[in-house]
Write a structure and sequence with these properties.
By secondary structure, the protein is mainly alpha-helical. The protein has one domain. Helix content is about 70%, strand content about 0%. It is built from 13 helices and no strands. The chain has helices at about 10-35, 40-60, 70-90, 100-105, 110-115, 125-145, 145-150, 155-180, 190-210, 220-245, 250-255, 260-270, 280-295. The radius of gyration is 19 Å and the shape is globular.
């Protein structure tokens, strides 16, 4: 088993903030890319491209990827869950608004918090930490409240909302499956390769089945967006994330992901000129307070 820490240190917090910032920027990049490429093609191609990069990185570093170590069942399951998560997100956006999607999607840390005690009792949250998680989620929900209250105009908005909740469950399921399976002791490179490879093939197959058009001529803009999503987000940041899952408490890591949508709002303000409202600043302060409560030192060390 890897050397697992019970608290998030400064290095982990720095890495988490970097990941949340990149994932927030990725929301803007993915949205911008939809004008030139279908959502399933976009998600599938970036996964396959990142899988090739991770494979080359592991080969260069001499990290074994294909040994018989009992990780295949867990790897196939996590890859499937990873692909289903993105399929639900992109399909759900056809029926519901992006704001509603964000609020429902970030129910994922609650699913992780509920499931982790069955895997590792040491990761059970106390009342203070549960309160912090609720405060952090409330901050995200409040930041998106205006858009959440607006109907998308689609008659099947309930279907989009349901797919959003399913995406949250699949995302949490990926984290729980990694901790509960032999992947918990596998390298981050192998864990990520399972997810990128399986999800990439599945998403591209879904794009073909749904008849999405694949652009043959790519603009420099689309190439730059796909480079960012493939190299920086899907290869680098996900590799860092899965390394942290092996070494730090998953419930505390999951609480930090609630910062991602607010980073997305900040990225929209920076790149798209959208206003930063007092609501967003207050939400950021509440989020920071909630995450601090979740990640404060426990007094009940025997839990």
């Amino acid at each position: 088993m890897p050397d697992r820490k019970t608290e998030l240190d400064r290095f982990a917090v720095t890495c988490l903030l970097l990941c949340c910032m990149l994932w927030g920027l990725n929301q803007v990049a993915a949205k911008a890319g939809l004008s030139e490429i279908g959502p399933l093609w976009q998600a599938g191609l970036r996964s396959l491209g990142a899988a090739a990069l991770v494979g080359l990185w592991a080969l260069w570093r001499g990290i074994p990827l294909f040994g018989r170590d009992g990780t295949l069942p867990g790897g196939l399951l996590t890859g499937t869950l990873f692909g289903l998560e993105f399929a639900c997100i992109f399909l759900g956006l056809q029926y519901t608004s992006a704001s509603r999607m964000v609020v429902f999607l970030y129910l994922s840390p609650f699913v992780v918090a509920l499931g982790m005690p069955f895997i590792a009792r040491s990761e059970r949250l106390n009342l203070r930490q549960i309160g912090g998680l609720l405060l952090a989620f409330a901050a995200v929900a409040w930041a998106f409240a205006e858009g959440f209250g607006q109907r998308s105009g689609a008659p099947l908005q309930w279907l989009g909302d349901g797919l959003s909740v399913l995406a949250a469950v699949f995302w949490a399921g990926t984290t729980l499956c990694i901790r509960a399976s032999r992947l918990s002791s596998a390298s981050a490179e192998k864990t990520l390769l399972y997810q990128l490879g399986v999800s990439g093939l599945g998403l591209c197959a879904g794009a073909l089945l749904m008849g999405e058009a694949l652009p043959l001529a790519w603009s420099a803009r689309l190439g730059g967006l796909m480079f960012f999503q493939t190299v920086i987000v899907s290869a680098f940041s996900y590799l860092l994330w899965f390394w942290m899952i092996r070494h730090y408490p998953a419930t505390r890591l999951a609480s930090f992901t609630l910062a991602t949508p607010l980073f997305g709002l900040l990225a929209g303000a920076w790149l798209l000129g959208e206003p930063i409202t007092p609501r967003l600043w207050l939400a950021l302060l509440a989020l920071a307070a909630g995450v601090a409560l979740v990640n404060g030192r426990r007094s009940d060390t025997k839990a």
